[in-house]
Amino acid sequence: MQITFWGVRGSYPVPGAATVRYGGQTSCVESRSASGECLIVDAGTGMRALGNKLIRESQKPMHYHVLLSHVHWDHIQGLPFFSPAYVPGTKISVYALLTAADELNEVIGGITRHEFFPMPLEAVPANFEFHQVEPGVDFQIGATRVLPIALNHPFGAVGYRIECDQSSWAYVSDTAPFDLVLHKQHFLKGVEPLSDDDKLSLSAMRDALVKRLEGVDTVVYDTHFLPEEYAKFPHYGHSTPDQALEICQAAKVRRLVLYHHAPSHTDEQMDKIAAEYLAKGANVGVEVLTSFEGMTLPIGTPP
Amino acid sequence: MKLRFWGVRGSFAMSGHDFLRYGGNTTAIELVSAAGDRLLIDLGTGATEYAKTLMAAEFGKGQGSLPILLSHTHLDHIQGLPFFTPFFIKGNKIRILGAAPSSGLSLEATLQNQLAPHYSPLNSLENLAADVTIEEIVPGATLQLPGFVVVTAAVPHGSMYTTAYRITADGKTVAHLSDVEYPSPDEPIDIACALAQDCDLLIHDAMHADHEYELRRGWGHSPARAGVVLAERAGARKLALFHHNPDATDDMIDEVVARTSASTAVPVFAAAEGEYLEL
């Protein structure tokens, strides 16, 4: 298995000279098995370039599987610009957590409503199929086993452990840490006091995440914030590299990949973050890499 | 009047080396009158950059006031809305003016849908701390905004309409016709000619290079030559090619400018992110 990063940015795409090296497009990771099975995790703006590459690879219609962490714009905006969707005969299976809406097809279809996009989803030639995922309920896509994990994000999000070719990687984005704020189905103006039940929910969520990540080779984690930024916006639903490292250490993960970079972080800042956390990770036995657009990682230690 | 392009890209924000000179942000244009009144056209990703300069001044203190004209609500023209930081400061007064989408949904309901809980953590326009008003305009109306007179018109954009703007301040006029396609690029419609008549700067949709257009006829966008024909017909003093194709690299845009300039006596340039232009 190998993974390729097509979009590593959080919130919104940031073009320009300051983001040329790490990339300005939003969340999208391609996972490939040794036999060539392709799984796409999140459909942010990075998905446009991925689609163009897939079209170059194969002119004939294929079946694509898209796992969504949640449906905030930065994780779905690439879908209407995924060129294979315009090849008749293409099949696209979308997997997502149902959160604040009734029907998944309506939520995904909603991004191509007349007001937002010139072509409604029904008119897109690809055949779409929607699957609702539930944290803790595993499922199979071809030779790949997918294990959804509940995350702590406004209106809910789900991470995925992906197993294939005797190895595994996990996608843990977007999520806040599991101490100060419990995200539910309402808007948070700031940090709200936690009830005893909330505290139990948070620790159960954290335990389940650590358990699911145990023995995973590579974990891609939402590390949107630096600690000083997190202190200002703890209710935004994102983590810091330190918080990610703590989870990875607890789960004895081999490698952590920093991901979902804040749009304000320039290449120079990202270089500093990368160097600082590579060193911090080395101290605790976790290899810490910082994702950039175009980065490809083999999953599993080479034999 | 001064003008600055904060986003010039159509459809999709493009990052990377190939898009550095013209810029990869989706559409946002700032106009400033001699007296310092400001106006923004569209809330593409370019608006998030503009927001930073606003926040460094009175908007950071909740003392800013800004009208924003929307051409339409396709995502590349509003995707910067949830990240336009002046919205998050109490006291700022921001008016969003635009026509109701052709679907029949109101402008306010459309923007609420953009911020619906599944799509955005903001959840609702009510959670914006600033004093934000959504004002539906009826294309054809003339708007009196502080420092600017704005004439509006509905122009065809594929199966729908966008709102084009003729904006006058300090005796200078800018015509903004983006996301527009005429029945033929060689026959601009009367309403477009009237809007651009004798303007100092015509900003026009140039999504397609002329040779690419035939394959994309009916998609709602213009080839570069449509702006030229309109500029000549309407007596515009200058033409800015705008709403660049996401696949158009800097070098490709250079070529389009060279070819377009050679075809007309009207001075032509490609809109680029960057400096203020004095009209």
Describe this structure in words.
The complex is a heterodimer of chains A (303) and B (279). Chain A is 23% helix and 25% strand. Chain A has six helices and 14 strands. In chain A, the strands form two sheets. A seven-stranded mixed β-sheet of chain A has the order 6-5-4-3-2-1-14. In chain A, β7 and β8 form a beta hairpin. Chain B is of the alpha/beta class and 279 residues long. Chain B has helices at residues 46-55, 107-114, 190-196, 224-234, 250-262; strands at residues 2-7, 28-32, 38-41, 65-69, 93-98, 131-136, 142-145, 148-157, 160-169, 172-177, 201-205, 239-242, 268-270, 277-278. In chain B, α3 crosses α4 (224-234). The model of chain B has no long low-confidence stretch (mean pLDDT 97). Chain A binds chain B through residues 11-17, 19-20, 23-25, 45, 48, 70-73, 76-77, 81, 99-101, 107, 110-111, 113-118, 154-155, 185-187, 189, 236-237, 263, 293, and chain B through 9, 11-17, 19-20, 23-25, 45, 48-49, 73-75, 79-80, 82-83, 101-103, 105, 110, 113-114, 116-124, 127, 158-160, 219-220, 246, 273.
Task: Outline the fold blueprint.
The complex is a heterodimer of chains A (303) and B (279).
Chain A: E1 2-7, E2 28-32, E3 38-41, H1 47-57, E4 63-67, E5 91-97, H2 104-110, E6 127-133, E7 139-141, E8 144-151, E9 157-164, E10 167-172, H3 196-213, E11 218-222, H4 227-232, H5 241-250, E12 255-259, H6 267-283, E13 287-290, E14 296-298
Parallel strand pairs in A: 3-4, 4-5, 5-6, 10-11, 11-12, 12-13
Antiparallel strand pairs in A: 1-2, 1-14, 2-3, 7-8, 8-9, 9-10
Chain B: E1 2-7, E2 28-32, E3 38-41, H1 46-55, E4 65-69, E5 93-98, H2 107-114, E6 131-136, E7 142-145, E8 148-157, E9 160-169, E10 172-177, H3 190-196, E11 201-205, H4 224-234, E12 239-242, H5 250-262, E13 268-270, E14 277-278
Parallel strand pairs in B: 3-4, 4-5, 5-6, 10-11, 11-12, 12-13
Antiparallel strand pairs in B: 1-2, 1-14, 2-3, 7-8, 8-9, 9-10
Q: Ranges of chain A with pLDDT <50 over ≥5 residues?
A: none
Helix content of chain B: 10-25%
Tally of DSSP helical segments of chain A: 6
According to CATH, what is the class of chain A?
Answer: Alpha Beta
Give the biggest sheet of chain B.
Answer: 7 strands, mixed
Q: Note the beta-strand portion of chain A.
A: 25-35%
Q: Give the neighbour order of strands across the main sheet of chain A.
A: 6-5-4-3-2-1-14
Spatial sequence of strands, sheet with the most strands of chain B = 6-5-4-3-2-1-14
